[in-house]
């Protein structure tokens, strides 16, 4: 790739060249991480030889501490090696939709939004809400947000599917137990407009006033944008930017991400069909249950991974569940 970028005609196609350079930069960063780890190991081996000659107990203790840090780093990097999909290294666009059940499910959708934003914060990722439709009384009907950081899509694709919550309802005067559902969709971030070819004739673009809390927060002009892709029936919208142009550009970015994800789903379904597997789609079944009553338990039904630390999970501590899913997929690939 470096040799290709050095060619005299490399920058004739600006979009293609920029995409290549971004990929080259990412690959260099990944290689440097492993090279850096190798240098640390070499340095520790040198220190170990010195400690052996001088019989320095304090140096042995320092080496042991550094070795433990390297081991933890290596475990994290091994997990990253599982993220070898075409789009795994990219940012992610996530959509959450409340299921049937009104306020209960809308509150659950907002809890999931908070969980993912906290998870992103824990990992040092950047997150931004692109579109949000608030609930009538509480919570949200739907939300689309972006998570930016290395392998954000690779990790978050583990969250695709229906999430089920069982709890004593804070909205029920009788305080009865309720079950709520929400659907999570995850799409890879789009790096270049040429990745997906969209025919302008396939688009219907509508503008409307952004919804808000009322008063000064309500837009007086129609800045929100809704785009319908007639060929697939996909509808996307954006109302969080200041201008109609910005909202339109963001909505087009979401549409491209959805079209890429649609192609990925078709590919996965075809592979599953050839292997004779059943593929559950949409609201067919839940991937994970979060039980807050009569006991505390979060269980992933795909892997069997579970934890009683429901508070931690809902506060963004998802790594155990995500890693179990990724490891299970590696096992399937090997089989």
Overall geometry comes to globular
Q: Which series of helices and strands comes N to C? A: HHHEHEEHEEEEEHEEEHH
Instruction: Supply the CATH class of the largest domain.
Output: Alpha Beta
Biggest beta sheet attributes? 8 strands, mixed
What CATH architecture of the largest domain do you see? 2-Layer Sandwich
Low-confidence stretches: 213-219, 278-282
Widest sheet, order of strands? 2-3-1-5-4-9-10-11
Query: What is the beta-strand fraction?
Result: 15-25%
Mean pLDDT, as a whole number? 86
| Radius of gyration (Å) | 24 Å
Q: What structural class do the secondary elements suggest? A: alpha+beta
CATH fold-type name of the largest domain: Alpha-Beta Plaits
- Helix fraction? 40-55%
**Any idea how many domains?**
3
Helical region count? 8
Number of strands: 11
Terminal residue distance: 33 Å
Description:
By secondary structure, the chain is an alpha+beta fold. It folds into three domains: 2-81; 92-192 and 280-334, 2-Layer Sandwich (Alpha-Beta Plaits), CATH 3.30.70.1660; 200-266, Double Stranded RNA Binding Domain, CATH 3.30.160.20. Helices cover 44% and strands 22% of the residues. It has eight helices and eleven strands. Strand 2 (126-134) and strand 3 form a beta hairpin. Helix 2 runs antiparallel to helix 3. It is globular, with a radius of gyration of 24 Å. The protein starts with a helix and ends with a helix.
Strand-helix topology:
Blueprint: H1 2-5, H2 14-54, H3 57-81, E1 92-98, H4 103-122, E2 126-134, E3 140-148, H5 152-156, E4 161-168, E5 177-188, E6 203-208, E7 224-229, E8 234-238, H6 244-275, E9 286-291, E10 297-300, E11 306-307, H7 310-314, H8 319-334
Parallel strand pairs: 4-9
Antiparallel strand pairs: 1-3, 1-5, 2-3, 4-5, 6-7, 7-8, 9-10, 10-11
């Amino acid at each position: 790739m470096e040799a290709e970028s050095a060619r005299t005609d490399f920058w004739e196609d600006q979009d293609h060249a920029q995409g290549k350079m971004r990929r080259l930069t990412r690959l260099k960063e990944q290689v440097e991480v492993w090279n850096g780890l190798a240098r640390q190991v070499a340095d520790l081996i040198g220190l170990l030889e010195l400690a052996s000659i001088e019989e320095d107990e304090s140096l042995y203790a320092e080496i042991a501490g550094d070795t433990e840090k390297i081991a933890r780093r290596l475990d994290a990097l091994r997990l990253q090696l599982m993220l070898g999909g075409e789009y795994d290294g990219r940012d992610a666009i996530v959509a959450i939709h409340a299921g049937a059940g009104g306020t209960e499910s809308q509150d659950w959708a907002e809890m999931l939004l908070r969980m993912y934003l906290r998870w992103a914060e824990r990992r040092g990722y950047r997150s931004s809400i692109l579109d949000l439709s608030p609930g009538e009384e509480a919570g949200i009907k739907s939300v689309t947000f972006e998570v930016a950081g290395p392998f954000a899509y690779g990790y978050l694709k583990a969250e695709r599917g229906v999430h089920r919550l069982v709890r004593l309802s804070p909205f029920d005067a009788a305080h009865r137990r309720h079950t709520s559902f929400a659907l999570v969709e995850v799409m890879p971030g789009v790096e270049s407009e040429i990745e997906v070819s969209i025919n302008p004739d396939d688009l219907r673009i509508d503008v409307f006033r952004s919804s808000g809390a009322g008063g000064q927060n309500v837009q007086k002009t129609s800045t929100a944008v809704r785009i319908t892709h007639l060929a697939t029936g996909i509808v996307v919208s954006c109302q969080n930017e200041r201008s109609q142009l910005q909202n339109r550009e963001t909505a087009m970015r979401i549409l491209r991400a959805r079209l890429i994800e649609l192609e990925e789903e078709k590919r996965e379904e075809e592979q599953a069909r050839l292997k004779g597997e059943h593929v559950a789609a949409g609201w067919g079944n839940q991937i994970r249950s979060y039980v807050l009553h009569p006991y505390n338990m979060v269980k992933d039904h795909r892997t069997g991974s579970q934890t009683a630390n429901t508070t931690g999970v809902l506060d963004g501590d998802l790594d155990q569940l995500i890693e179990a899913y990724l490891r299970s997929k590696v096992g399937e690939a090997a089989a």
